[in-house]
């Protein structure tokens, strides 16, 4: 070994196979063929003296070998890394040394810091550091045999999970604290790209289908009064299936807290989506159950619901239209009946006013007459003149005036109770002189009847049925709103997250070439 110039070792490697990429333990295992070339000045002979033999094969333990070491190897025994057989020795002439080529197969298990941020659309770049462990660059100096093609891939067997994108080599001279001189290292870079089809077919698509079907199942509009409690069971079952899929993915992921992988973000969003869907389904069930109480929703709330319904174009169910039609018929019938009663009392009121005016005229002429107000109990038979409405009507006779209050409403179909007063049109002696109506019992009662707001009650059974139908329609409307909302979020998360990873995966070859 010369003292002035170091031995120059030219190193080359041909990749044969990528055996495995272990994501949890962060290492790469590959099979490669390595060739080391150097000149040994102590070897060499004159071919003419040995029958013109210029090249021989010698066992590796008969010659000096450089202690080439893979710095980031996970295997410490050299016998487990490489298999040394024979060296090819070519003479350069007597006194000039010999050129040695050492070819050997290797299986390297090396540490590789994997960046799984975009898993399963990730691209990994692993480095292999080769150099002498004992000798610095004043004794052994390393060079790449072919810098343009650092690691050959001509004979590489295609891997089912990875594609080789590019290789590169950089020569470093490192200074360590232990030693005064620099050490030469060859840094080989192997850039590989994952094939994501396996994960798309077996993980991403099933998860997306499960989530999509769950959302449809959660918020599919049920028929009227159909129970929705089984949707909670659907949510729990879906979460259980998602946990099983996450367990499958966890075996592929490293235990790191420095970042969230893309697939972890995808599964987290799907789980949150299903969880919130289950909660919203519970809200829908709660709204539906409010109809069992019989209290209808407020008019403002129903107006808001109808306004929202115009945007989502959800058709009102037929049974709800029938219920509204039934309510309208009942209200119309009651208004007609109460309108007839109102006309009756208007006519009675006018009749009483005419009698009062007639009384004022006659009072000036016959001031000696005495006006007496009789109670309704006294007027049972008023000279053959009877009132056919209620007992609180006003009858006028010779003997006095009977004061009548506001009549109570009769039954809906009782037309006899709402007929006009059967009063004789021919005046009798008993009715020669009209008397004064009692203000408190007649005029005041009629005035209050005239200006009182008419309320049209609906039967309790109809109101209860309508409340159930309205709350069930509100529940269906909420389901439609939640369906649109969660489908939008599902498309945004599932497709959006995976599109980000796919874009990174698609652009990776161009980025590596640049």
From TrEMBL:
Protein name per UniProt: AcetylCholine Receptor
Keywords: Cell membrane, Glycoprotein, Ion channel, Ion transport, Ligand-gated ion channel, Membrane, Receptor, Signal, Transmembrane, Transmembrane helix, Transport
Boundaries of every Neurotransmitter-gated ion-channel ligand-binding domain copy: 3-196
UniProt-listed Pfam families: Neur_chan_LBD, Neur_chan_memb
Parts of the chain that traverse the membrane: 197-220, 232-250, 262-287, 481-506
A cellular component term, taken from the record's GO annotations: plasma membrane
Gene (UniProt): acr-20
Primary location recorded for the protein, binned into one broad class: membrane
